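User: Modeling request: complex.
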Amino acid sequence: MTERTLVQAVNAALARAMAEDPAVLVLGEDVGTDGGVFRATEGLLARFGPQRVIDTPLAEAGIAGLAIGLAAQGFRPVAEIQFSGFMYATIDQMLNHASRLRTRSRGRITCPMVLRAPSGGGVRAPEHHSESPEAMFAHVPGLRVVVPSSPARAYGLMLAAIADPDPVVVLEPTRLYRALREEVPDDAPPLPLDRAFVLREGSDATVVAWGGMVPEALSAAEALADEGIGCEVIDLATLKPLDEATVLASVARTGRLVIVQEAPLTAGLGAEVAARVAERGLMSLRAPVRRVAGWDTVMPLPRLEQAYLPDAGRIAAAVRETMAFA
Amino acid sequence: MDSVAARFEILRRRHLAPDGTACGPWPAFAQDPAALAAMYRAMVRTRAFDQKAVALQRTGRLGTFASSLGQEAVGVGIGAAMRAEDVLVPSFREQGTQLLRGVTMRELLLYWGGDERGSDFAGPRQDFPVCVPVGSQAPHAAGIALAMRLRGEARAVVCVMGDGATSKGDVAEAIDFAGVWSLPLVFVVDNNQWAISVPRRAQTAAETLAQKAVAGGIAALQVDGNDVIAVRDAMEEALARARSGGGATLIEAVTYRLADHTTADDARRYRDDAEVSVHWHEEPVARLRTWLTAAGAWSKAEEDALLAACREEVQQAETDYLATPPQAVASVFDFTYAALPAELARQKAEAVP
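Assistant: Request completed. Predicted assembly structure:
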């Protein structure tokens, strides 16, 4: 048995990738001696040495740019951004460079890097530590965006992200880092970066979620089952590219769709999911699509964060509403 | 009580005065007039290319273009000092260096003519393409240099930027990385005095741009950027230090932008012609020609032959550029990822029925 928390799974995936491919490097603030502020890189310095586990100066844009240069030279850098609010500084590098090097050089220079960071709220963290920036990165052509929601998926998706020939942004839900343990064998395979996961089958309504919202969606489904409402819960997992086929197939069966995102409502990834269903699955719908999301507000400080975060109660209420639609 | 915590000074290097006379002693490579004539040819070739590109833009056959008129000594001095295995991380006015490194005129025209294939140059395969977001290339240079250092290679990276770029955080971060890890990296600030309309004095209160290196703990030097001998000498010294593990250097090459910022700019909106006229007396091409001629190392016949060869080369580049068939629309999609995701394949099918 190899039971791991999500952060331990990230750590194990990094270690395995580094053991299997000498081109894989880990860099970022406090990733070396300290093992990362969440311990995602714990033990890597001792095992792989300072040539491959690199403590950087405190400079997020520079860290992303550094990874681009390393990737262009054939390394496979995995750059950690310490907290989600500090990721915004990397957007210039990720958008103007990482995502377009392949295109603008017509394939001469590529950028096989991973930019990983904790994301989302729910852990009473300080200001700027609880952001959900996934839609900003998902909007960028040339990037992949992955948000794991379980130890096993974190492990498999991280292996795939590191092996991918293009830049991948991996957002790890902070609130799930130590929420549960599950079996994650050392030889678990990489998981595909274009596939959603059906976590629970049901025939009445489809609930699409990702990251920290997945356990909330599952517990809403559990509560609704007691009321005789069967929810199919899909973990989107990879937000770009989006596995719309899995969503459309589910909606074709259920006729009802509730999308859950922790990020603010407007122009979020949920809007893209809803639009895809409107374009390609409208005739399956028996009720309007509902989105349960963070409010269009600044992420509150911890005392009020529960008032912002969608939870099982709000999700269940939205499902009941769609069920009540005549 | 205060005491001195640190001191610094910035040296300025010049080997050839504006009037074309020598300021000795000269470095070894400059003892050979043939080597100086080769750099002279490269500067004239760069100028001929710039003239052709501007002419093509003015006649609607090229997009916006950034000429390096007056700054040829910087581009050529860098290119003459670099080795093939080094990596250039340019800004967008480094055609002088790119041409010396084997990027072809046709490829440069393709890029500025709006075709990505211009950045898929056949020559220096690891050199980065032009970087338009000012200063954002500096961290890439640090990453490439870190890669070389991790592999223990005796190679170096040259990152070129304008004076305006020194105000960017990216540049400060890259200098910091270069210092902390003793990276084999040479930053060159091609200080042409103008960041579009903003003059050097309005860019920073620092006395020199070279001293931006001091805070990051790397070597700093200012050179007369219109003196190709000084630029090459400073570059060779910095590159040797970089390749031998001695760490990074920032070289501020002080020059002057005789051209508009780009073909989309009209510099008369913000600077006097009189100022420009003064700087024509210091430009690098005539300066070296004066010395070469006085030394008996350059003749009228050689000058005529060079100009004729340049005319022919740029004409041929124009012909080749204009004869290059456009890319297929499919290429818009095909390089976004290594393999097309499903949604992008759908969009490609819509764009290319």
